[in-house]
Amino acid sequence: VQAVSKDRDSTTVVADRVRFTIPNAPTPRPAQPPFVFNTNSYIIEETRFDPYAMFSGETGALKWEAGLRYETTDTTISGIDNDFAILLPSASLRYRLSDTDRLTLSVARTVRRADFDDLAPVTLEEEHGDNDFRGNPLLEPETAWGVDLGFERRLGRRGVVGVNAFYRDVTDLIEDVNTGLEGSGGPGTFIESIDNVGDGQVYGVEFDLSTPLDFIGMETTGVFLNASWLDSQVEDVLGERRFNNQSDYVVNVGFTHDIPTWGAAFGASYRKQGDAFERVYAEEVVTAYGADLEVFIEKRIFSNTVIRLTGSNLLDSSKDEVFDKFDDQADQIARSYDEYELETESAGPVYQLVMRVAF
């Protein structure tokens, strides 16, 4: 049995953004208007009681495990009650096909809870860019039934390669939403929140490889590759779409090489992910991510001291966003644009030198 009790008593003091025009010289600069402070207070109390049971066994080449968890949560948010109880069964099978091959199958129901910040019944001005954010104390937890089917093969003594297919049937999907209400910044700004937007599905395939290259005589060199392809669907008032801000693929690949006689090592990793799409009230965003390359080299200078030089973002990758903005949902459906905006963010390469000393 697991029991958890959490309380938050919060007071937030926020100053409104001061806006005024500074004229060109020689016109005197006007006096800055005074800051106006607003105070928001709220109390969140959460009590969880989660009994569970787990069983496991083995029959020949088959190992199995089954469990059942019953999560009960009592939440009070500034006088608003939001209680729920969820039954979470799970089961997994691992079948040994040979000394090197294994097949796995698992089925489980999972839950994703909102953070306290998402439940707070206060409005934070210009929290998301020019838009305000208001928490949702009535937010329900997101649940999902999931199935995973995988195959794994051991490579030599330390290597492994595997492929896994997965499917999730999601209920009460939690996403950021636009309420359509005008924000504190005036026309063109909105109050955003978080809500359960409906039911959906997400599915995909993952490939993993991690192995030293000892089978070709390079015992101190290791390579790794992780690649995921995924898709999803959920339906909103404008029709079917992917889950917001979900890339269709993510790839990580790299290597490390040790030089024991020098007490040194070096390596590199490369990461790339696909474009992501987001659609909320009166706004749609397509985000493209540049590739990231990281390289490191390290040297042991004493028995207990290692120095490491790391270069990150060596490809000077950028985050590029395309915004389609509309006055309201009717214009969004009719594709009558209010604004079309392009944004690009880049930070440049970063170099870091670190010394580690063990005592």
Topology:
Elements: E1 2-15, E2 37-50, E3 52-59, E4 62-77, E5 80-81, E6 84-96, E7 101-112, H1 116-119, E8 123-128, E9 131-134, E10 142-155, E11 159-171, E12 174-182, E13 190-196, E14 200-213, E15 218-236, E16 239-241, E17 249-259, E18 264-273, E19 276-280, E20 283-289, E21 292-302, E22 305-312, E23 318-325, H2 329-334, E24 339-346, E25 350-357
Parallel strand pairs: 9-13
Antiparallel strand pairs: 1-2, 2-4, 3-4, 4-5, 4-6, 6-7, 7-10, 8-9, 10-11, 11-14, 12-13, 14-15, 15-16, 15-17, 17-18, 18-21, 19-20, 20-23, 21-22, 22-25, 23-24
Describe the structure.
With 359 residues, the protein is mainly beta. Helix content is 3%, strand content 68%. The strands form 3 sheets. It has a 17-stranded antiparallel β-sheet that branches. The two termini are 39 Å apart.
Q: What is the beta-strand fraction? A: over 45%
State the order of secondary-structure elements, H for helix, E for strand: EEEEEEEHEEEEEEEEEEEEEEEEHEE
Largest sheet: number of strands, sense, barrel closure: 17 strands, antiparallel
Q: Distance between termini?
A: 39 Å
Number of helices: 2
Q: Report the strand count.
A: 25
- What spatial form do the alpha-carbon principal axes imply? globular
Radius of gyration: 26 Å
Give unreliable regions as ranges.
Answer: none
Helix- and strand-based class?
A: mainly beta
The helical percent reads under 10%
User: What is the mean predicted local confidence, pLDDT?
Assistant: 90
